[in-house]
Design goal:
It is built from 16 helices and eleven strands. By secondary structure, it is an alpha/beta fold. The chain has two domains: about 130 residues, DNAb Helicase, Chain A (Orthogonal Bundle), CATH 1.10.860; about 260 residues, P-loop containing nucleotide triphosphate hydrolases (Rossmann fold), CATH 3.40.50.300. Strands 5-4-6-7-3-8-9-10-11 form a nine-stranded mixed beta sheet. Strands 1-2 form a two-stranded antiparallel sheet. Strand 8 and strand 9 form a beta hairpin. Helix 1 packs antiparallel against helix 5 and helix 9 packs across helix 10. The protein is globular. The mean pLDDT is about 85.
Length: about 425
């Protein structure tokens, strides 16, 4: 009953009845407040918008309207589906199964049980949505367009590098799956952290998974990138100007924009289910950083098939929750060795970003990502190669000057959009 009340209350508060259809929630899913659902649906059909909550509360005295609902639509809709299946299966097992077992031959009974389980699975799957009926969703498309018009550039997350942002036609679009690939130990985690810190400074909520680092290591990197405090001195407690650091930290006592960091202390096993649970509980997150793909738990034996499934699920997850997902992936060593040989014989070593297929684990990350950025750095020079994108900058590069230890990662080349 509480789930029904919370979901219908959120519909009224957000004035968003159309979201229920997206998760295949209809009249049959409500028991306690079916009359309330039908009243809202009838109003929407007649007037084209969700009614004022006060009208519904005044008419239905027994409706337990929730003034504040912090849960997201996906969480509530899936919870309602699970609750319905749970109640149905309880009745099947506690009432129907005993009677059917006595009445049926064993083969027929097993087939009946299989049908019941299949129906339960189908209901649970339906909570993920059954697609969109383009023929009848004009109002939904109008609402989306109005939101996009109002949000403007808010539909995109800019990068820290002006040229890269221009090449991507405004930055990373919400729902994008971005692959950042690089060789070992060239600074790909610094680039990912720089993207996160810059996006957070622009007002976007961040969820940063860094299972290879400790809490202090990742926080120190952010302080280096945002405040330009020497990373080694931060780590060793040897800052030259400690008062400047203390003054800088005073800005971090109260901030409405979250930057949630999960490191080795918090993560026992990083998988897609954990990420989805975090997104359900934190609807203000707009950017997810997973550093790196190889450190995730892929289920099974961690083979290519399992990794491919993880990648596919991440693509769906980022789109469903309308967040930008940056997945950091390490390129295998063979191509790195070849590049090292070229640089050893060159008087002026230069960055040589990995090719689009420069690794052996799974090609799914290349196929699933809408943007693939390949990165390399040598002797303070960095380069981001845009191997894949929907914008105008495919196969173009952005040159950088990098001083990771001081938090300076800046463009080295002039902006060239064409």
């Amino acid at each position: 009953m509480l789930l029904e009340a919370k979901l219908l209350s959120k519909v009224l508060i957000d004035k968003d009845f159309w979201t229920l259809a997206r998760y295949n929630i209809g009249e049959k899913d409500f028991v306690a407040y079916r009359d309330v659902y039908n009243a809202i649906r009838s109003f929407v059909k007649e007037y084209g918008h969700t009614p004022d909550y006060r009208e519904i509360v005044a008419k239905y005295k027994k409706f337990d309207f929730q003034v504040e609902v912090y849960d997201t639509f996906p969480y509530l809709c899936k919870g309602l589906k699970r609750s319905k299946v749970s109640n149905h299966m309880f009745n099947v097992l506690s009432v129907d199964a005993g009677r059917k077992f006595k009445e049926m031959e064993i083969e027929a009974f097993v087939e009946w049980m299989d049908e019941e389980l299949g129906a339960a699975k189908a209901v649970l799957k339906s909570s993920s949505g059954l697609g969109t009926n383009y023929a009848v969703n004009g109002k939904e498309r109008k609402k989306r367009y109005e939101e996009a018009k109002k949000a403007g550039s808010g539909m995109f997350i800019p990068t820290p590098y002006e040229t890269l942002t221009k090449y991507l036609d405004g930055g990373f679009e919400l729902g994008d799956y971005v692959l950042l690939q690089a060789f070992s130990n060239v600074g790909k985690s610094w680039i990912a952290s720089h993207v996160g810190a810059f996006a957070w400074s622009a007002g976007h909520g961040i969820m940063h998974y860094s299972p290879e680092l400790s809490k202090s290591q990742q926080e120190n990197r952010n302080d280096t990138l945002l405040g330009h405090f020497n990373n080694v001195h931060l780590r060793n407690g040897e800052l030259v100007d400690e008062e400047a650091y203390y003054k800088y930290l005073e800005n971090y006592d109260d901030n409405e924009t979250p930057y949630t960091i999960k490191t080795m202390e918090d993560i026992e096993s990083l998988d897609v289910d954990m990420i989805e649970a975090d997104l359900q509980m934190n609807p203000n997150i707009k950017l997810v950083i997973i550093d790196g793909f190889n450190l995730m738990s892929h289920g099974g034996k961690g083979d290519r098939t399992a990794m491919s499934k993880t990648s596919r699920r991440l693509r769906q997850l980022f789109a469903r929750y309308q967040v930008v997902g940056i997945v950091v992936h390490q390129v295998n060593a063979s191509e790195q060795k070849e590049n090292a040989k070229k640089n050893d014989s060159d008087e002026n070593p230069m960055p040589r970003p990995a090719s689009m297929f420069g690794y052996s684990e799974t090609i799914a990350v290349i196929q699933d990502a809408c943007t693939v950025l390949s990165y390399d750095a040598v002797d303070g020079n960095g380069e981001i190669f845009i191997a894949k994108c929907r914008g105008t900058g495919k196969e173009k590069s952005v040159s950088l000057n990098v001083q990771y230890n001081l938090g300076w990662i800046t463009e080295a080349s002039a902006v060239d959009y064409f």
